[in-house]
Amino acid sequence: MTLFSAAATLLLILDPFGNIVIFNAILERVPKERRRRVLLREVLIAYGILMTFLLVGAKLLAFLGLQQSSLSLAGGILLFLIAIGMVFPNRGVQFGGAEDEEPFIVPLATPMIAGPSGIAFLLLLSSKEPGRLPEWIFAVTAACGISAAILIMGDRIGRILGARGMRAAEKLMGMLLILVAVQMITDGVSLYWNSLQAAG
After folding, report:
1. What topology in the membrane does the UniProt record assign (predicted)?
2. What do you get for the CA distance between the two ends of the chain, in Å?
3. Is 106 helix (H, G, I), strand (E, B) or coil?
């Protein structure tokens, strides 16, 4: 996987266009002058979570005794389910919390940004090609930076694209993510088959 494809895939997983509506709804109860600061704080927390799993991913998998084939299959299935939800969205979301409560970590930083699918993807990258860690760090930084920019401009993007345009953009990202998920699943099956042949 190239640096560009890693950053693009992670950006699809983070789904900033799909998160705009949810972020705007949650941040409505935050004073207008604090919204950008809160949003940036949540993105930075999510960035820290993702970077932590990227940096310790290979050691964590080795400690748990997990193989790359298992992670590729599990991550691919998880991405596929996330992508299906993007193509066929169900926005009946309950945000929880008090009406005047400022969001902190949950639900914005995680699981909305740094969710299980993004973590699984980074674990796979760090374990599959640990020698390219600087590239993966740059990919995470770029994807989180672009996501932050899109979320900050959420109101403006929503006005330009409209409700239909936003749904279309999310569905397009979901379709692309389905392709990535299927590739991860086939890679996992191939790795598992090769390991069986080597053991036999």
Report:
1. Multi-pass membrane protein
2. 29
3. strand
Question: Which residue stretches of the chain have pLDDT < 50?
Answer: 92-96
Give me the numbers of helices (H) and strands (E) for the chain, helices first please.
7, 0
d(CA 106, CA 94): 13
Q: What single string gives the DSSP state of each residue in 53-93?
A: HHHHHHHHHHHHT--HHHHHHHHHHHHHHHHHHHHS-----
9 half-sphere exposure, CB direction, 13 A CA radius: 26
How much is the pLDDT for 96?
Answer: 47
Distance CA 172, CA 175 (A): 5
- The pLDDT value recorded for residue 100 is 57
Single-letter amino acid, residue 147: S
DSSP at 104? B
For residue 153, what are its two tokens? Answer: 């401009």
Angstrom distances, CA of residue 71 to CA of 83, 94, 118: 18, 30, 12
33: exposed, middle or buried (C-beta count within 10 Å: 0-12, 13-18, 19+)? exposed
